[in-house]
Design brief:
With 129 residues, the chain is an all-alpha fold. The chain has one domain. The chain is elongated and about 50 Å long.
């Protein structure tokens, strides 16, 4: 694979992986669990919503890995930077919807799910090498 195609696949995987992370996270937190928040959601909704958030990140990481054919970790690195930047922006602006430990845990679960999806695509390959 030449470098031009590799860069194109990296950019494509970053965009599609990031957009799928946004889509699946919005589906799991805002639509299925009706605005998941520490202050207003029940403990059952928090548990299942956190699990759904983790699963949506794992699915997005898996999709990004399939696009770059498993040997490129740059899309996951860029998506991780986006998650950390979003978390830093929320801290600076003070837009927490719950306790800081809860919001930090949700963002850390996004990071862990993203990299678990990457590991899953590398360990159990569906794309050709």
């Amino acid at each position: 694979m030449n470098s031009r195609i590799r860069v194109l696949l990296t950019v494509l995987a970053t965009i599609i992986g990031g957009l799928s992370l946004i889509l699946y996270t919005t589906l799991s937190q805002d639509i299925i669990f009706d605005g998941l928040s520490y202050c207003t959601s029940s403990s059952t909704d928090l548990a299942f919503g956190g699990l759904a958030t983790f699963a949506s990140a794992a699915l997005a990481g898996f999709i990004a890995s399939l696009i770059v054919v498993r040997d490129n970790y740059w899309p996951h690195f860029f998506i991780s930077l986006f998650i950390i930047g979003k978390m830093s922006f929320v801290v600076v602006c003070g837009q927490w919807s719950g306790p800081m430990w809860f919001e930090t845990g949700m963002n850390l679960s996004l990071l862990a799910g993203l990299w678990l999806g990457c590991y899953g695509a590398v360990k159990f390959p569906l794309a050709p090498v």
